[in-house]
Write a structure and sequence with these properties.
By secondary structure, this protein is α/β, with parallel strands linked by helices. The two termini are about 40 Å apart. It has helices at about 30-45, 60-65, 85-90, 100-110, 200-215, 240-245, 250-255, 275-290, 290-295, 305-325, 325-330, 350-355, 400-405, 415-420, 450-475, 480-495, 525-540; strands at about 20-30, 50, 120, 125-130, 135-140, 145-155, 175-180, 195-200, 215-220, 230, 345, 360-365, 370, 375-380, 385, 390, 405-410, 435-440, 475-480, 545-549. The structure holds NADP nicotinamide-adenine-dinucleotide phosphate. NADP nicotinamide-adenine-dinucleotide phosphate binds near residues 202, 203, 204, 206 and 224.
């Protein structure tokens, strides 16, 4: 479902550069993937054009301007590694950077590499059709552009197709409505307002404390509670920054070899073998550290064994109950699915916010949502009246941004239809029947289970190497063989089946979109293992891909 104009904040249309008729590569999206791609393609002597729906670079950080928006990977780790000089020059301010700081970083990179001259802003890619005779793609946009290209790279992000909930009467509300992923650039003043917010994922958890501090009253509509850790955000010290800058090269290597793209200690003990004292100490340490990966790597069997995971779950429930004063509200905030199987959150004062007099939690499990009305939100229990409704209802994750474009490969086959039973890729980079279509951090790759910057750089490097391989040998196309793709999809499923991930109704599984096939989409085998596999495939002459003259 796309965002309706009444709820989105469409940017004013930017000045557009001239669009060439033919280029070597079209890149869709000018977030961190598209920016790095453009830089690399240019350095390889190729002509490229990037189409970007927003009016500036930054992708997710251009759109997600809701109050409290931050990344939950530390700034010094959530940054490009490809240019040591950039690494040394950019000065991060906080441990977990805010959206404005990350957007400033993206803009800095765009300036530094003069990227904007090949980016067409304010322009959404609508279609890309493959011409088998010419071995080229024809790409079309909502501004009437038509470009032919040999290579098409979808750098569209995993969490970019924002989603409204399927609630009757959604257009009936007469007050203001906002979606966290399409926040107005000028911000929203909640002073004196009665605000309702639907959704308690990362966006809800981050924005709720900030909105609560401003609004007259905030009512939170929760369908599924989140597991959230206090971020313990703070200003970075001069010594910390200098320390990282001195050891960046070694740190980057460790990132690439790690499980989540964030170096962390490797667990050695099962939670079931640990004494209660050891377990409590480990969980407390993770909680105090303000780092999600520290929690996820406390014990060897945390992600794979229900009993082990239950120990963490109970410990976190106790924590929530120790913070939230009202026992019913505390109970309602305690999740029942295994820890880590839906994306956990990092927050600043989230649970404490429910102790405020001006905040009410509505548990939609006990009081199901019925409809949006002209005055507010009606549940089975009553109608709540608001001046503003905030939708923190997430995304058609991982596939939405790809299938929203009319992509047609060999024989005119549509990507959306080809993936109707779930996405199928080889390595999360390409898909059979769609030659020279590359996808950055697509389903079947670690993507959302990793520090995105690490996975983005790895994919961009791999794709650019593959293109160089073709160019050097006078080859024209590359695409996965159906056999290699089937084997990879089986492998991705096999790994997921040994974890607890499929036990939650998460967006990892497509469960937040009615009718979307339930398939665990990311590769759960870890960033380091995945990289080894990709490198091996390339070393073996792009094994599993069909290369043609
Ligand atoms: P989300 O995690 O998908 O959360 C959406 C919320 O809306 C969920 O609580 C969901 O409930 C609720 N919801 C959806 N439809 C509903 C309906 N019809 N009725 C009631 N509730 C409904 O989306 P998000 O919070 O935007 O985050 C998405 C992802 O973006 C995160 O998981 C994370 O990967 C990334 N992100 C990261 C950061 C960060 O780095 N700090 C910040 C924001 C986002 P159910 O759970 O029951 O479906």
């Amino acid at each position: 479902m796309s965002i309706t104009p009444s709820i989105s904040s469409e940017p004013t249309r930017a000045e557009r550069r001239d669009v060439p008729k033919t280029v070597d590569a079209v890149v869709v999206g000018a977030g961190f993937s598209g920016m790095y791609l453009l830089h690399k393609l240019r350095n390889a002597g190729m002509s490229a054009v990037v189409f970007e729906a927003g009016d500036d670079v930054g992708g997710t950080w251009y759109w997600n301007r809701y109050p409290g928006a931050r990344v939950d990977v530390e700034s010094l780790a959530y940054s490009y590694s490809f240019d040591p000089d950039l690494e040394q020059r950019f000065e991060w301010q906080e441990r977990y950077p805010t959206q404005p700081e990350i957007l400033a970083y993206a803009r800095h990179v765009a300036d530094r590499f003069d990227l904007r001259r090949d980016i067409v802003f304010g322009t959404r890619t609508t279609a890309a059709h493959y011409d088998e005779a010419k071995r080229s793609w024809t790409v079309r946009t909502d501004r009437g552009d038509t470009v032919t290209t040999r290579y098409l790279v979808m750098a569209t992000g995993c969490l970019s197709a924002a989603k409204l909930p399927e609630i009757p009467g959604i257009d009936a509300f007469e007050g203001d409505t906002y979606h966290t992923a399409h926040w107005p650039h000028e911000g929203v003043d909640f002073t004196g307002k009665r605000v309702g917010i639907i959704g308690t994922g990362s966006s809800g958890v981050q924005s709720i404390p900030v909105i609560a501090a401003q609004a007259d009253h905030l009512t939170v509509f929760q369908r599924t509670p989140a597991y959230s850790l206090p971020a313990r955000n703070r200003k970075l010290t001069v010594d910390e920054i200098a320390g990282m800058k001195a050891r960046y090269r070694a740190y980057r290597k460790a990132q690439q070899e790690s499980g989540f793209g964030i170096p962390t200690k490797i667990p050695t003990k099962s939670a079931l073998e640990a004494t209660e004292e050891e377990r409590n100490a480990a969980f407390e340490e993770a909680w105090e550290s303000g780092s999600l990966v520290n929690l996820l790597t406390t014990f060897t069997d945390f992600a794979t064994n229900q009993e082990a995971n239950d120990l963490a779950k109970r410990w976190i429930h106790d924590k929530i109950r120790s913070i939230v004063a009202d026992p019913q509200t505390a109970d309602d905030l305690c999740p029942d699915y295994p820890v880590g199987t839906k994306r956990p959150c990092l927050d600043t004062g989230y649970y404490e916010t429910y102790n405020r007099d001006n905040v009410t939690l509505v548990n939609l499990r006990r009081e199901p949502l019925v409809e949006i009305t002209a005055r507010g939100i009606r549940t089975e229990a009553r109608e709540y009246e608001f001046d503003v409704i905030v939708y923190a209802t997430g995304f058609d994750a991982m596939t939405g941004a790809l299938t929203n474009v009319d992509i047609r490969g060999r024989g005119g086959a549509s990507l959306a239809e080809t993936w109707s039973a779930g996405p199928r890729t080889y390595l999360g980079i390409g898909t059979a029947g769609f030659p020279n279509l590359f996808m950055i951090t697509a389903p079947g790759s670690p993507s959302v289970l990793s520090n995105m910057m690490v996975s983005i750089e790895q994919h961009v490097d791999w794709v650019c190497d593959a293109i160089a391989h073709l160019q050097e040998r006078g080859l024209t196309t590359i695409e996965p063989s159906p056999e290699a793709q089937d084997a990879w999809v089986d492998h991705v499923n096999e790994i997921a089946s040994h974890t607890l991930y499929p036990k939650a109704n998460s967006w990892y599984m497509g469960a937040n979109v009615p009718g979307k096939p339930r398939v665990f989409m990311p590769y759960a085998g870890g960033v380091g293992e995945y990289r080894k596999k990709c490198d091996e495939v390339a070393r073996n002459g792009y094994e599993g891909f069909v290369l043609a003259e």
